[in-house]
Design a protein that fits this description.
By secondary structure, the protein is an alpha/beta fold. It is 33% helix and 28% strand. InterPro entries: AceGlu_kinase-like_sf, ACT-like_dom_sf, ACT_Aspartokinase, ACT_dom, AKii-LysC-BS, Asp/Glu/Uridylate_kinase, Asp_kin_monofn, Asp_kinase.
């Protein structure tokens, strides 16, 4: 007997026919006495359609009411899937995130799971049900519903699996697993048999859309293996775990990630005095705007002013612009420039630790192709360059070919 949490994304449940396909697959694979929890996203493009609907009402569709609206998408899916299981002759019950015990912060649109109390899920399983849970949502202390951000259903699934001490959490998607880079950009991308939590977290944080970063964090926290696999085949996918189990799977470069949802913010000619940077970044943080790749430089001709450059998500640009314009009234600066035509290209690999020269190779590849680097940031296992959006695909293909495949060759 095994306790298995399975997550299916929007493309996997986009139509009633596809919902029945999932139901049939789950029932065919289920062994006697297995306990199954299924976490689902909204059907197809439902979330995008709800966002579009909100924008017809307001130019600033965010906050409590937006989360109330978006949470309805998953609730449609869970009810339909429970009905489909019943039609196939198996007991099933649907639960919203709050009903499943998902407690979250009050950061609407970007809430974090604070705790999980799955007693009601356990009770339903013991009664013989397959339990279908709405992903992407939790309940705030005051009783409100808050959503977990794009890809939040992954986080729901892994958090539930961890809290319930599940044997495995299976993330079903429209690709076969985790690849060395986006197969839509580089046709020679390689499916990885396994990857560590640390590497997958960096890949996800830096743009690899197959997993949400917070989901990987949850997997690492609870030590639950995550199996990323395809909805449309029974092939083995990619296992995300603490350490490699096969020595040959280790490599210097594990993958190349890209992120086109990046905007460069330049605060030009800011007065150079203590506390200014703190004021700027606190104002952004108070509105849950994540900041990355920060550079501050003092002009050699005038040390009384400095330029502060950083990146944010393009999705956050309208709110960030509003905040920075307001700060401009109290902080002296020459101008605020925001460029949304930027993108990040990154290499990730635990093997880079103690391996000199990797950064030089990456920069050399970009330089040879005339791809200008705007900002560079590094961690112990990643190197990220900010480049023009119209060159990022070229950058990914070249770096993947010369660094990842070059290493293997």
């Amino acid at each position: 007997m095994a306790l298995i949490v399975k997550k299916f994304g929007g493309s996997s449940v986009a139509t009633p026919e596809k919902i029945f396909n999932i139901v049939d697959r789950v029932l065919n694979e289920k062994k006697e006495n297995d306990q199954i929890v299924i976490v689902v996203s909204a059907m197809g493009d439902t979330t995008d359609e709800l966002v579009s609907l909100a924008k017809q009402i307001t130019s600033k569709p965010y906050g409590r009411e937006m989360d109330r609206l978006l949470s309805t998408g998953e609730q449609v899916t869970i009810a339909l899937m429970a009905m489909a299981f019943t039609e196939r002759g198996h007991q099933a019950i649907s639960m919203t995130g709050p009903q499943a015990g998902i407690q979250s912060s009050a950061a609407y649109g970007k809430a974090r799971i604070l705790d999980v109390f799955p007693e009601r899920v356990f009770s339903a399983l013991q009664a013989g049900n397959i339990v279908i849970v709405a992903g992407f949502q939790g309940i705030v202390e005051n009783g409100d519903i808050a959503t977990l951000g794009r890809g939040g259903s992954d986080t729901t699934a892994v958090a539930l699996a961890g809290a319930m001490k599940a044997d495995v959490c299976e993330i079903f998607t429209d690709v076969e697993g985790v690849y060395s880079t986006d197969p839509r950009i580089a046709s020679d991308a390689v499916k990885l048999q396994e990857i560590t939590y640390g590497e997958m977290l960096e890949m996800a944080r830096l743009g690899a859309g197959v997993m949400q970063p917070r989901a990987v964090e949850m997997g690492s926290r609870y030590g639950v293996p995550i199996h990323v696999r395809s909805t449309f085949s029974t092939n083995q996918g990619t296992i995300i775990r603490e350490e490699y189990t096969v020595e040959s799977n280790k490599r210097v470069i594990t993958g190349v990630a890209d992120d086109i949802n990046a905007a460069k913010v330049s605060l030009v000619g800011v007065e150079n005095k203590p506390g200014v940077a703190a004021t700027v970044f606190k104002a952004l943080a108070d509105k849950n705007i994540d900041v990355d790749m920060i550079v501050q430089s003092i002009r050699s001709t005038d040390d009384a002013v400095t330029d502060i450059i950083f990146t944010i998500l393009c999705d956050d640009v309208p709110l960030a612009r509003e905040i920075l314009d307001k700060l401009h009234e109290t902080i002296k600066m020459e101008s605020i420039n925001i460029d949304e035509n930027m993108a990040k290209v990154s290499i990730v690999g635990a093997g880079m630790l103690g391996q000199p020269g990797v950064a030089a190779q990456m920069f050399g590849i970009l330089g040879e192709e005339g791809i200008n680097i705007e900002i560079i940031s590094t961690s112990e296992i990643s190197i990220t360059c900010l480049v023009a959006e119209n060159r990022v695909k070229d950058a990914v293909r070249l770096i993947h070919e010369k660094l990842f495949l070059g290493e293997r060759g």
